User: Fold this.
Amino acid sequence: MAITETRSLPPQFVEDLGKDYATQLTGLTSQKMDTTKFQPMVAGQDQAQTDAYNLATTQGQGIGAYAPYLSQAGAYGTAAAGLSGPQGYSSFMSPYQQDVIDATMSEYDTQAAKGITGIGQQAAMSGNLGGGREGVMRSEYQNKSDMNRALLQAGMLQQGFGQAQQAANTAFGQQQQLGADQQRMAQLVPNLYGSDIATLQGAGTNQQLQAQNILDQQREANRMAAYEPYERLGYMGAGMGNVMGGAMGQYQSQVTPNQSPLQQAMGIASLGYGAYKGKIFQ
Assistant:
């Protein structure tokens, strides 16, 4: 007996699409995805940031920024202190001053001696040589000469002292000014370093952010490239679902399977039996 089966089969193009889809899906999913191409990455520090860090740690912060200037200011203060007081002028005295004084005093003594000789000559001419008047004249002259000598020497010493004292005062003021300048530098330098550090840090941060943006964009591009085949197959699968859903109800196939030898034998036997039975009843 022949059996007729009715099957709902998709069109051939749908079967071809299904096979192609399955092949692509199997091939794609069997490969391990290289996620290192789109793993998160952090941009390294820019050179300006490194320079800012080095400047901050070596010179820009702490006592290292102003200590040298304070030390120099202290040195100037010590030098200024040495220029004050009773002996502050001594280092500014001319090394030739004593020679000048000695030469001047020697010349003065020579001239004074000539004056004494003149008194003797005058006494001899007046007939008072060796007398009391000559002695008085010599005594008065000597006293006056000694006083003038002392005044001359004191004047030269005072002049030298005044000059040395003035030079010491000038140097004292200069040392104080230099010390004050160093103190101002001690306050100014850290601010200048701080400004340089901030400028370098800002510029470096901007460059680092730019580099980070580039890395992020490249990572996103790599991710999109890696997932593009999966997305494409996803669109293909969705489209195939729509196509197959509509095509399955439109195509039907009727198939009559071939009879087996047993079925064929049984069919022949039934036919023979029918013929024989017909003859009997005739």
